[in-house]
From TrEMBL, chain A:
<dbReference type="GO" id="GO:0015658">
    <property type="term" value="F:branched-chain amino acid transmembrane transporter activity"/>
</dbReference>
<dbReference type="InterPro" id="IPR003439">
    <property type="entry name" value="ABC_transporter-like_ATP-bd"/>
</dbReference>
<dbReference type="GO" id="GO:0015807">
    <property type="term" value="P:L-amino acid transport"/>
</dbReference>
<keyword id="KW-0813">Transport</keyword>
<dbReference type="GO" id="GO:0005524">
    <property type="term" value="F:ATP binding"/>
</dbReference>
<protein>
    <submittedName>
        <fullName>Amino acid/amide ABC transporter ATP-binding protein 2 (HAAT family)</fullName>
    </submittedName>
</protein>
<dbReference type="InterPro" id="IPR017871">
    <property type="entry name" value="ABC_transporter-like_CS"/>
</dbReference>
<comment type="similarity">
    <text>Belongs to the ABC transporter superfamily.</text>
</comment>
<feature type="domain" description="ABC transporter">
    <location>
        <begin position="6"/>
        <end position="235"/>
    </location>
</feature>
Automatic annotation (TrEMBL), chain B:
<feature type="transmembrane region" description="Helical">
    <location>
        <begin position="53"/>
        <end position="75"/>
    </location>
</feature>
<dbReference type="InterPro" id="IPR052157">
    <property type="entry name" value="BCAA_transport_permease"/>
</dbReference>
<feature type="transmembrane region" description="Helical">
    <location>
        <begin position="112"/>
        <end position="137"/>
    </location>
</feature>
<feature type="transmembrane region" description="Helical">
    <location>
        <begin position="28"/>
        <end position="47"/>
    </location>
</feature>
<feature type="transmembrane region" description="Helical">
    <location>
        <begin position="87"/>
        <end position="106"/>
    </location>
</feature>
<dbReference type="GO" id="GO:0006865">
    <property type="term" value="P:amino acid transport"/>
</dbReference>
<comment type="similarity">
    <text>Belongs to the binding-protein-dependent transport system permease family. LivHM subfamily.</text>
</comment>
<feature type="transmembrane region" description="Helical">
    <location>
        <begin position="149"/>
        <end position="171"/>
    </location>
</feature>
<keyword id="KW-1003">Cell membrane</keyword>
Amino acid sequence: MSEPILKLEGIETDIGRYHILSGVDLEMPRGQVTMLLGRNGVGKTTTLRSVIGHWRAKSGRILFDGQDITRMPTPAIARMGLGFVPEDMGIFSDLTVEENMTLAAASGPLSPKRRDRIFAAFPPLATFWRAPAGTLSGGQKQMLSIARAMAEERRLYLIDEPTKGLAPAIVSTMAAALRELKREGASILLVEQNFAVARALGDRAAVMEGGRIVWTGAMAELATDAKLQSRLLGLSVEGV
Amino acid sequence: MSVQSEGAPAHRPTFAALSARDKLAKSAPFLLLPVLALVGLALIGTWPTWLTLTVSGLAMGMMIFVMASGLTLVFGLMDVINFGHGAFISVGAFVGISVLAGLGDWTGAASLALNIGAVLAAVIAAMAVTGALGWGFERVLVRPVYGAHLRQILVTVGGLIVIEQMIHVVWGPDEIFLTRPEMLKGVTLFAGAAVETYRLLAVVVGLVLFVAMRMVLRRTKIGLIVRAGVQNGEMVEALGYRLRLVFVGTFVAGSALAGLGGVMWGLYQEVITAGMGEEMMILVFVVVIIGGLGSVEGAFIGALLVGLLQNYVAFLAPKLALVSNIGLMTAILMWRPEGMLPVVRAK
C-alpha cells in the first residue's frame, strides 16, 4: 500500500490545564473515507484541530502526505491542500455565500466547473448566492461549510460532524455530497455521530476513547459486529 | 461579475418579507443622522446658523472617523486594544505641520494648486512616518501581548507616554500655532450660509476616504479577508490566509490614517500639542464603541453623530457640551449594548 495521506504518531494535546489527547496514533490510507468515532468528549474534535494547527500538539508527530506539519502554521498547512469543515461550521455570516466561496478558493478564482458541481450538490447555495450567509438555515450553512472545502483541489478533507442537528432530508443531501466526493477518490477524515451515515460512507473506522485511539479496522467489520459497537461506542445496538 | 446561477434549481425560494418593524430596526442607525439634523434644525431655528453648525459638525465627525477607522478594525481583527493610537495622531500632526512650515512659499501663495500641493506633501509625510511608527509599535509592543487585554492596555499606554515625550524632545515642550494655507483660510458662501472653506474640504476628504475604504472592504480579496477575519480569524487561517500579515497591514494603515487625522485636526484647530492625540482618543473610543467594535460603517455613523451633537449642543446649551458625547454613548449603549452595527460578537 502506498504511503498514508495522514499519519499521527503519539499526538498529545492539552487545552489549558486539561489533558485532552494522550497519544493518538492513526494511519489514514489515501483515497478512502476514515471515520473517527467515539462518545462525546473523547477528543475527536481536538484531534482534527491538532492536525490543522488550531491547537498545538504538545508532543508527537503529524505527517501530511509524508511531510511533517506538526509545527507548521495553520495557513501553510491549509495551502498544502487541506480542506477543513469545523464543528461550528465557521461561516462568515456578514459575507454573502458568494464571498464565502471566493475566500475558500484561496489560490485563484473559483472555477465555473467546481461552482456548477457545488450547485448540483447543494442547490440552495445557487439560490442564495448573493445573500448574506448569516441568513441561511442551519442545514444550508452546513452545505456552505462543506462547499467551501470543495472549492479547490484538496489532498485531504477534515470534516467535523457534518450532520449534527440537521433534519433527515438534509442529512441525506449531505451524505450524497460526501459520497460524491468519495467516488472521486478524495481522502476524508470524518467525525460522525450518526452511525447510519458512518456505516454508509466509511471505508475504515477509528474509535477513540479517553484521548487515544482504541480500535481501528474496516468500517464493515464494525458495522456488522453489534457486540463490538456496544463495547466501543455504547450503542444500543439495533437503535440505528 | 460573471457568476450566474446556471446550476440553480427550478424552485425559487424567496426571502420572507421583513416586517416594517424589522426593517426599521435594521436601518435605525442610518436614520439617526437625519433625525438628529432635523431636531437640530427645529431647535436652532435659523437656517444659516444651522447649516454652519451642521457643516462644522460633519467636518469634525469626518476627522474623528479618519482617526477611529483603523482602531476599530485592529480591535475587530485581533482583539487588540490599542491605547497608543493617540500617539500616531500627535506624531502625524507634528510631522505634517513641520512639512507645511518648510513649504512656506507654497502655503503663503494665493494659489490653490500650490496650497493643496503643500497640504498633500504634509499628509504624505505624516502618513509615511506614522505608518512606519505603527509597524514598529505593533512589532515591539503589541505582538508580545496578544490575547491579554490588561497587558495590552498597560503596554500601549506606556508606548503613548513615551512617544508623547519624544515629541517634546524633538519639537520642544510648547504648543505650536500655525495658520492654514492661504486659500483654505476664508469662508465660502454655501446655500445661504457662510461656511469655513477648510471644513468643506474636511467633509469631502472624509467622505472620499469612507467610500474608498468601503470599496476596498467590499470589492477586493484583502477586504474580504479583513471582514471575514473580524468575524472568525481562525477559519480565515484554516482557508490558507496568513491573518497575521493582514493584521500588521491593517495596523500600519490604521496608524497612517491616524496620522492623516492628526494633520487634518491640527489644521482645523490651528494649534498642535503633544497631548492632542490623547485628548482625541476619548472621542475616538466613544465612536468605536457606539459604532460597534470592528465596524467601519458603525464608526462612520458614530463619528458624525458625535460631531453633529457636540456642535448643536455647544450652540444651544454650552454648559452641556462636555457631557453630550458621554450622554450619547450611554443612550446608544442602553439601546444597543454591543453598539449600533456590531460585527464582533461579545467575547
